[in-house]
């Protein structure tokens, strides 16, 4: 029940010690302010990491070849392994039921691309139809390469938005003919990529056309896969590791590579790498929680010390109250109210200041691995609730001490 006299006592006590109360409130407010800012920074790191993984499809596995580093079956180290169509066919055939999306690719770096009087050097990449999904790119005009293009070795191309801006300006590129390394290709689509201009400086074409047009035979540069989704992360990680180990074994056996030569075949497993990033992010956020909570504890200890001083100053008053029949509960309640009031007001002020800072300043802080720092409102309210509870605990012990004071002892206090 609302007791106006009790609140008058609280405000009277605060007004008599304004500086002390203010400094105590600042220590509490700074504690929750620092905690919320640190939690927001942790979320910003998580958002940045997640944005990086948006650049490729979820669970992507990429395979490429390197140079052998060990002698094997009479073959010297230092051999450059060349992947071919048959290398791609091996895992596709063996793991067909586990593969959701797949593509081989052949890359020509620094290819010359010309349209009219405009020209530039861009990456020419022969791919399969699934490649658009593997790169998490989006078609903004026209279409991507299809199975018919692949089968009939069609001379069609899909260009990145950067190339469109460089060569065509504001003109519509669909149906236009570009010359790539001396070969004519008809543009059937334009794509954009979340990774930006680097990825958008590519010309995609059917891998079969690329191999035939540029005299590559059956050579490929690499291959990419996305496996079927699993119910949870642990299952997905186990599946991807089994797949990558199996692919390595197949390719090593076919290309006469020593079983323990881990450098000859390169594999990037985003599922496995994602765990490392998210584990790191978890440790950082736990550290932020730890620092923030320690700061809050320091503020709460300050509240407790202030309440002990207040109890000491009001010892005679407490003795008079008890002599007049005040119950221990009313004494405890009187001290607790003041402690909770100071903690709540200071905590809410710190919380509001931190949320406003994240709201207005956070979006301005952008980097590759840090974006949109924010705190879930439920988490923010939970931290405030914990702070109020801590304030109650901080005030309880001084209040309990006050309730235990004997009236005769309190009245003798100077």
Automatic annotation (TrEMBL):
Pfam family for this entry, one: FtsX
GO molecular function: transmembrane transporter activity
Topology in membrane: Multi-pass membrane protein
Entry's localization field: Cell membrane
Any one Gene Ontology cellular component term annotated for this protein: plasma membrane
Domain annotation MacB-like periplasmic core: ranges: 21-239
Keyword Cell membrane among record annotations: yes
Residue intervals passing through the bilayer: 21-42, 287-311, 331-357, 377-397
Domain ABC3 transporter permease C-terminal, chain residue ranges per copy: 292-407
Keyword terms: Cell membrane, Membrane, Transmembrane, Transmembrane helix
Membership in a protein family: Belongs to the ABC-4 integral membrane protein family.
Protein name per UniProt: ABC transporter permease
Organism: Flavobacterium flevense
Upper classification of the organism: Bacteria, Pseudomonadati, Bacteroidota, Flavobacteriia, Flavobacteriales
